[in-house]
């Protein structure tokens, strides 16, 4: 494991090191120490140079990316050098210092090897947090994007102080649980917490809502946020070393979260195949479907809802979708998902979820915002095998919603019902075949005369043929309106007293609106 002087400063704190460390504490360059008995002719950034003060020239000539640990008090100008420089005004030999630094390197290398072994052997991720308490003497908390507790650990030998008792009682939760609703509401209303999602490097969260600070690091897979690693300051005060260690641990956890085996070890092995075949409208033996549903504890005729999730970013981040889907399984009480056409497709069982379909959007909104995801919800259906139709329904709703309301986080079928019907009507037709002949005559009359009769007819129908409301909106005299509506009916040659006629005309107006947005005025 590479180190830096920020880390070693903590290991040598009994020697009271002083100096200047200009680089960020999470930048790690050093691979091994070198004890120098003469001033080096050249320097490499991956070596920690151990020098005695008498070897230093009067004027520093070391590049800024070099690290020097000096034994003895250096010339004053060295305290302002551009490189990373610490000195120890202490009566120990260079050999003793070299041995201590070498042992420190070995200690951190042993820790990194443990992290790699846990990753290689596919052990649970909480093992990484547990083995890190030899170096990180505080609470370690890994939070998924849907406020899911992936792991939360404490050093076993920590002194039981009042703060730690308070922490255990109020915050420590078991793995794979979800934060309480009141805590989630508190967090999503906290400006500092919401800003934290933007941080790319280890940062401090003031903890004004908690009573203790947290050091956090956002874990990303292919530049997409998948989890947040936190160290809670409830045992030992933070040092610069913690900034380096949280990034190392977070990067290893990120590797674990990005592997398919970690993301899918609890899911039925045939699930992706079955879902893909259903989405492609292929026939599947009912026994296979039943076997998968039985493993989930679901019935084929339970109430279902298809949910499509897409990243708002335009880049191809498909590799990050799997860990994102995993992070949402607890919130949605469903591992029935697949990655399809660059989207996460979830099938939600409303009975298992324990809520009505109208409650689901608010339930899933926090992780949508955390991960820059947009969602589309189908209507409820009662036959799992009909996924193909409801997936395509949600897909169309997603397309319509992003065109009409691009800033929204989610789109519900019920909010775009008319638009959906118009879309389906137009799907295999040119718009003209859906416009009644009478309305086409009226539009042609308007084009020749500039009369605006079609617009007036539309207002009249929208106001349910209420004359007072129509003339108020159209801003015209009653007698003028009565004259024009008679003229409209002469041209239209359609009976406006018939509800089917009125419906056909209103649908036609919606089709015209949709066509105008796509190609210009009808």
Automatic annotation (TrEMBL):
It holds the Pfam family HTH_30. Residues 455-511 form the PucR C-terminal helix-turn-helix domain. Signal peptide: none annotated. InterPro entries: CdaR-like_regulators (IPR051448), PucR_C-HTH_dom (IPR025736), PucR_C-HTH_sf (IPR042070). PANTHER family: CARBOHYDRATE DIACID REGULATOR (PTHR33744). This is PucR C-terminal helix-turn-helix domain-containing protein. It comes from Lactonifactor longoviformis DSM 17459.
